[in-house]
Amino acid sequence: MNLLVMSLSSKVPLIKAVRQAMVKHRPQAKLLGADLNDDCIGQHFVDFFWPCPALHDLRIESFVDYCNLHRITIIIPTRDGELLYFAKHKQYLANNGIYVMVSNYSSVELCLDKLLFSRTLQTESYPVIPSFDICPEGYDLYVVKERFGAGSSLIGVKLPYSEAIVNGRQLANPIYQPFIDGDEFSVDVYVSGGVAKGAIVRSRDFVIRGESQVTTSVRMPNVEKLIMDIAEKMQLEGHAVFQIILDSLGGIHLIECDSRIGGASTLSFAMGLTSIEWFLLQCNGYDVHELHFTRSECEKRLIRHAEDYIL
After folding, report:
1. pTM (two decimals)
2. Model pLDDT for residues 108-132, shown as the tens digit of each residue
3. Do the Cβ atoms of 270 and 218 come closer than 8 Å?
4. What is the architecture, at CATH level 2, of domain 182-303?
């Protein structure tokens, strides 16, 4: 049975990681990819490309018909904008023998809404950065960002109060947070059946447009345990990526969570958090918690770069 990766774009490293997992656990299967853009780079790295319509124009019955026609039984979403669609129809798809690496609807909503994420985790007494829909006075510096989605083009960082107000007027749904000085890290985590299997912490050494171009694995047992606890509390499923800041005193400050595989999550795969392999095994009926999570003893660094591909 075949596998479909959504929103291919130019996510070639992720496509290769999926292919590698399939070679181990579904060697006879075909890898399909979908994207709105007929010219996306990723189409050259899959066995079959589907220039699919926008999901809001696609009835779930038609989607299932397409999957049945091409014997697709596993779907991996890769973009925030498609997560609610698949979360909403997750059970219907499963009833039709199609399994999606996505959390339930309320958990996805919690991750997509940064204000809701902050307030919910504050209620649970987790160390999350407070967020406000109206800029509060009293902080030295502020961060201003969109409440929904992952866009980082208009984010304002380290702004005084007056500039934070001006920056917020440029955004559709601004939220305001106190600026926390420290080092940023990403934490990849995998959850199966409501239980976190493992987590990998990565330093964000060089970032462009919100994505790590250079990232290095770091062993932080206290952070790993905290993120695994939060992932379970949020009832996440599959792969998720948390963003945190560690201040100069070692304090942890949660920023946000993406309930999907991230652009640099391939480093965590290489460190032993083999999320795609585990999900394939789950879909085959295995209890992945019976498999041992072996973290690499050697720390690794990922450097994202352009590479030519000659056919």
Report:
1. 0.95
2. 999 999 999 999 999 999 999 999 9
3. no
4. 2-Layer Sandwich (3.30)
